[in-house]
Amino acid sequence: MIPALEVEGLGYALPGKGGRGRGRSLVQDVSFTVGAGETLVLLGRSGSGKTTTLKLVNRLLEPTAGEVRVAGERAADLAATRLRRRIGYVIQEVGLFPHFTVERNVGLVPQLDGWPPQRIAARVRELLALVGLDPATFATRYPHELSGGQRQRVGVARALAADPPLLLLDEPFGALDPITRVELQREFQTLEGRLRKGMVFVTHDVREGLLLGTRIGVMHEGRLAFLGTPDDFRRSDHPECRAFMAAA
Amino acid sequence: MRREIALSGWILLLALGCAYPDRIVVGSKNFTESDLLGEIVAQQIERRAALPVERRFHLGGTFVCHHAITAGQIDLYVEYTGTAYTAVLKFPPALDPDSVYRAVAAEYARRFSLSWGKPLGFDNTFAILVRRADAERYGLKRISDLAPVVPRWHAGFGYEFLERADGFAGLARIYGLRFAAPPTAMDLGLTYRALGQRKVDVIAGNSTDGQIAALDLVALQDDRHYFPPYQAAVVSRAPMLSRYPTVAKALVELEGKMPDAEMRRLNALADVEHRDIAIIARDWLRANVP
Amino acid sequence: MQGIYGGGMSLLAFFARNSRELLGLVGQHVYLVAISTGAAIAIGVPLGILLTRRPAWRGPVLGLANVFQTVPSLALFGFLIPLPFIGGIGARTAIVALVLYALLPIVRNTYEGIAGVDPAVREAGRGMGMTDGQLLRLVELPLGLGVMLAGVRVATVVSVGTATIAAAIGAGGLGVYIFRGVATVDDTLILAGALPAALMALAADALLGLAERKLAWRSP
After folding, report:
1. Per the CB < 8 Å rule, is B190 touching C88?
2. Among candidates B156, B163, B193 on the partner chain, residue whose Cβ is nearest the Cβ of C180
3. How large is the ipTM?
4. Which of A123, B46, B183, C150 to pair with C187, CA 20 to 30 A apart?
5. Are strands B76-80 and B232-237 parallel, antiparallel or unpaired?
6. Is residue B200 within 8 Å of residue B194, measured between CB atoms?
């Protein structure tokens, strides 16, 4: 089985005055693999490089070192826009298009890929049901008519629309109130099991990470300080892991 | 009681302010020759009457100056008899320079309390101008010669010429001129450039303009005598003249001192060689009114 | 009251006597404004879009457009007259000047309309694999249209007023009446030019305001 994502020696340095025209490194020598059905949680403090790592995978930032392979294909070999169509991307602010209905938002990537309208409509209905939103009620609503939790559900549905092998999520539940957050975490857990996709889930919330991750990666000052199962994480001696466990 | 005193105080101040100006205001119209003559008059008053002169030049056209002098906002400016006769007084056209002058002087004194000085010595009539190449090609010497040619031509005029009774409408009627389209209206100063650049084919300039020679233009003879005589003279507010006899004396010295050729020479110095108007005026006064 | 009534009646009488000429001048005026605003949109909108892609150009481009705006209109006409090709007397020079005047509101509003789009929306769009063109067409332009149309509205209304000056350089339009009226100190003539021009500006403002409300997406 080809892994959903393989990352080797990934690095990102700002353009600057360092040696060879490079400045500060935000990410250095990061390597991991994510198989189908696995969720890698990237845990770390603010500024540790976890969001940057995510953006290096879908080339919103261009890596200055290392290699990324998505479903076996080298990311650098594809055009960036084609690469991104094969990766689902969910962000904290959601970023739904305010002038599109829920239906049009969710069906955006299939539409860009040229799917026939009926197939898009069916897929949209399927996905809305999957994320717990009744298609009949929600398809024609606009984002401003939805609550924060509903909007993020649509965000997830949108990311899944073209059935990508890999999903990237950047603190998707960070902007929600505690009750809604717990609700979505639980539903997401169920979804993980059903979907069999590779996922990279960035968060600074330890409990969320331990709940949702098949493996935990801890980023510290741009490097991967720890990589292992949740149990390994709980038992680890590494100072960052201890710090996170203490704060949990 | 206090309020009455304050009010009288303000009224007194206001009255004093209105009566105060011990200076002569000289105006001029919006073309070079008028500015030049205005400057000559202003300097003459300064050197002879030793009074401060306020210059309000390039005011606008004939009607703006007329309004200004009748409202007392300027004390004098140089006007042309024909212009006063047909445009301001709206008399039907006449030809004899002396009778036009006498009629204008009498009417201005009676109606407006304005006094006409004697003519300065030159006649600045409207010059209907065409390019020399066109004049030679179509054998144009008189305005009558235009009639067969203009149906294919365009004319350009300043706004005043278009509106005046002795302007375009009468000209077209008397000479039977039918242009391809209604004339293009533009700022008077731009009409020479428009003619030179072939944007228009006929303009109405002034016969003493410096640019006629410079741009190699031909002025067509007014063979049907449409335009009245336009003798230049100083028009002043009568009350001002009686209050300042030195000013009246200074102005008399200018009468008859400016023949046609001389006016054209000064205009060319200003318009073509771009010399300073104040310097031209000063040099002329030194040479001609010592 | 008598004076206003008398003045109003003489204005109406003037319009009745000179209806053909009036319509001709109105037509010329509309022509000047329409052509110049159209050209300003054709130049200004792409330029504004370009500025969102190249932030470094923002200062110089907006600065230059600002300079044109600050030059007094009559002076700008005067500067253009001696130039070859675009200069000379007449409508063409006037149109060039009007285009330069209309650029700033249009370029700036295009830029701000697009730059004002929620960054999260833009990030989500890029992250989903939209090309730059798709992002522009499907997201940035529709969301920025309201602000862009406001810029067009400002440019048009200003143009209607500035176009009256064009009569000084032989470009025609309602300014002809105004200049004739000023030369002869004739209030009726001045009003005959100024009133239709003012009405035209109001009408343009209302129509474009309507278009703004109908076409622009507003955040509820």
Report:
1. no
2. B163
3. 0.90
4. B183
5. antiparallel
6. yes
